[in-house]
Structure prediction request, 275 residues.
Amino acid sequence: MSAICPNPACGYHLKLTDWRANCPKCGVNILYYNMEERLQGDADNAEVEHARFQKHFDRLKAALVGSKLLITRLVLLFLPIGALFLPLAKVTANLPFFTRENADVSILGVVNLFSSFDFGSWLENIGGGILQKPSLALLLCLCGLILVAVGIIGAIVIVFFTASLKLQKQLPIFPAIGIGGVLLWLLGILFFNKEVSRLFVGNVTAHLGIGLALLAVSLAAIAIVNYLITKRGGVEVKYKECEIAGRPADEVLAVMEAENLTVKQYREKYPVQEA
Prediction:
């Protein structure tokens, strides 16, 4: 399909041989015809996009650093992540499915431990046998670690939506899930230590690590801060004033959406009255 001269009064179909800047029929400059109106349209579209983006940015800024309490929460969110890299437990064992000396069970330790883990033997022992209870204890620890991960990730993700009134009541939920995971991990370690000490005296020991305490304290602190945020009415968002077509952006966008108008059509229908 050939190009058409941009002059509505002309409508000449340009040919491949029409390589000059001007239309061979009406003589208008094809490139710069009605350039002012097109630039104004680009400027209007930029104003609309900026006004819409500014709202999202204002809500995100308010959710992250909108008050001293929110800044405190932002700092606290890094603590449970760091705690995962500290020892959650120290284990020494010599079992058919697990052999380690003074193993630090942290995020990195878990990766190292499971690299030599005999899952087949572990699952068989969960089904029954002399090692059933220790195997179940390790299952509790694994479930606890999964809950902790869900709690931390959820607590971080929901921060970005704190300005939403619908989600403010759910703020303490994910830290509470993480705390539940810590308790499950604690029970698993204590249960594991009790059972393997009874079965393998001196061959298996498990002790709680400092990372577990820091993890519990940091998650509890985040839950308390989230509760205080909810109790104080949530996050107050201060929106920056933007303009579209010389008028407040909120007013223009509301009319445009209600009447299904473009910015150009809005300008033509509601011209700015000069003082």
Q: What stands out?
A: The longest strand covers residues 89-95. The radius of gyration is 32 Å. The first helix runs from residue 35 to 65. The mean pLDDT is 82.
